[in-house]
Write a structure and sequence with these properties.
single chain, Rossmann fold, Tyrosyl-Transfer RNA Synthetase, 3-stranded parallel sheet, 14 helices, binds adenosine monophosphate, binds tryptophan
Amino acid sequence: MNKNVVLSGVQPTGDLHLGNYLGAIKNFAVMQNENDSLFCVVDLHAITVFQDPKELRNNTYEVIAAYLACGINHQKSTIFNQSQVSGHAELAWILNCICRMGWLNRMTQFKEKSGKNSENVSSGLFTYPTLMAADILLYKATHVPVGSDQKQHLELTRDIAQKFNNDYNSPNFFPLPEPFIEKEISRVMSLRDGNSKMSKSDVSEYSRINLKDDADTILKKIKKSKTADTNMPASMEEINLMPEVNNLLNIFSGVTDKTKNELIMYYEGQNFSNFKKDLSDALIEKITPIGNEIKKLMSDRDNLNQIMAEGVAKARIKSEIVLNEIYDIVGFVKQ
Ligand code: AMP
Ligand code: TRP
């Protein structure tokens, strides 16, 4: 029987936030125990939008530090930086020749990111999903933990894998990877607007909780977060009509072992001040130790370099085996 292979990636494009943690990284640490796991920092993806080189380098270390601080064990899992394993870019080229223009034209993330400016964004931003497919297929990954914004890219990866297997008459060569998306928490919303996603690029700092926020900042942000003019309702039907309240409940449940229903039963009929106080406490308990650990790890570059070097060495060995098979299937001459 084939073993499960878990792979995921995070872009080094700025401060990591609660959405990244609850939607993705928290699951990485759980999944590493049962599976062969790889977690990369996707710097090749980051430069699809211009990044200041100095910041890019610093952010790359910071994502590695965040992985470790969130409980990913570098001996169990392979933690590495994408651009240091050349197979990602090499396979991306081959997959660009498999993937159809029409498929890329349907990608909603590209439409959102390019907006009215689609003639003037990089062509890398357009082909971004084929590089993501390469990350996954280079290790024949079977399971990909991500937030729900990545679901469409995973579906595209499956289409690309299937077309490669068909075109080259290599049935089952690439497994069709499954997204692992946790329902309630796969889309953490902004604290200011329950209809838009919590995001690194939101101009308002009050829209998100960063993993490096201290206790005071978390308290202030939750205090300012939007709720409703009523008390906490008793039913899910009513809560579903209050996106901000629903989001805070998802977050509360995500950082504790309490279910949403338990929380609703407890706070039902109360105004939101107690709820906010308890939510802040729960967040502070969960998030500040992670933030402190990130800061501690960031102060020892040699250690991070050592961990990255070990990860890159492991990733290169794994990827070269698969890339050789692919070159052979495609008909590239090897000497
Ligand atoms: P990125 O920072 O765009 O590379 O995202 C890294 C991971 O975090 C991906 O798996 C995203 O789907 C996930 N993610 C980002 N923002 C959110 C959010 N607001 N809610 C849930 N997951 C998210
Ligand atoms: N596109 C993902 C994001 O923006 C990051 C990513 C790149 C990724 N390659 C990946 C996620 C491979 C999972 C698997 O969040």
